[in-house]
Write a structure and sequence with these properties.
Order of helices and strands: EEEHEEHEHHHHEHEHEEH
Structural class: alpha/beta
Distance between the termini: 34 Å
Bound molecules: adenosine-5'-triphosphate
Strand order of the largest sheet: 6-7-8-3-9-10
CATH class: Alpha Beta
Number of domains: 1
Radius of gyration: 18 Å
Shape: globular
Strand content: 25-35%
Length: 250
Amino acid sequence: MSTPIRTELLRVQGLRAGHGQLTAVREVSLTLARGDCVALVGANGAGKTTLLRCLAGVHPALAGQVRLAGQDITALPAHRRVQQGLALVPEGRRLWADMTVRENLAVALEHRDPVRAAAAAQPWSIERALDALPGLRPILDRPAGALSGGQRQAAAIARALMSNPEVLLLDEVSLGLSPRVVDEVYVSLQALRDQAGTTLLLVEQDLGRALRFADRVLCLREGRIVLQAACADTTREAVTHAYFGMETLQ
Ligand code: ATP
């Protein structure tokens, strides 16, 4: 059977970003093909969140270029990147706590780019998101502030889908969740891959899970990509060595 050819969707070249005097992302280059699922791993402070925030346009890049579907989006502010198809599910999820899940989704739906929605082969609706993330259906009319961590995460993913993203950037999807709930969140993510072919770049602290779920793994250390590999072609040990900077142990 021939492997389907995947077209390039996101290309990042020489991206640099920092916080004051501190350089947190150093000359990062990566590409994502349409339908890719890539896990971004690295120790605390490696620069994962800063990198995702830079790609989403909520943190300024000091140098480098970001192209989405061939278009240079480096200078675009965050809301324009959302319109172009790049959505971030931030760590901590940031839903409107006093609004119900339905209201959170409706606001996102109202603010989406109509041109983008009209151009989508299958635009996301609340109903379609509930089909992909069925755990949300029974809690649709609950205030977001009353949800469990896993429910909030699923609602945040659904909210991001309302913008019809080509690429979904997910920061620490498992943070603070019990293993059972993390399993549920990953079932939802798998459904997105299978049903919608959504391209995913996700930060995951659990290395085993990252390697099982993603097609490719990128390891950041001190702001640099120190390993890029297909998950099927690497081992937990190789990634751990890259993670902690123990190349001499190979
Ligand atoms: P974690 O897993 O702990 O979230 P990370 O890999 O996501 O880490 P970042 O949060 O991007 O890493 O942090 C990269 C570097 O930037 C770290 O040295 C961190 O201390 C620093 N940093 C992050 N946010 C800020 C900030 N708002 N102000 C100053 N320094 C920051």
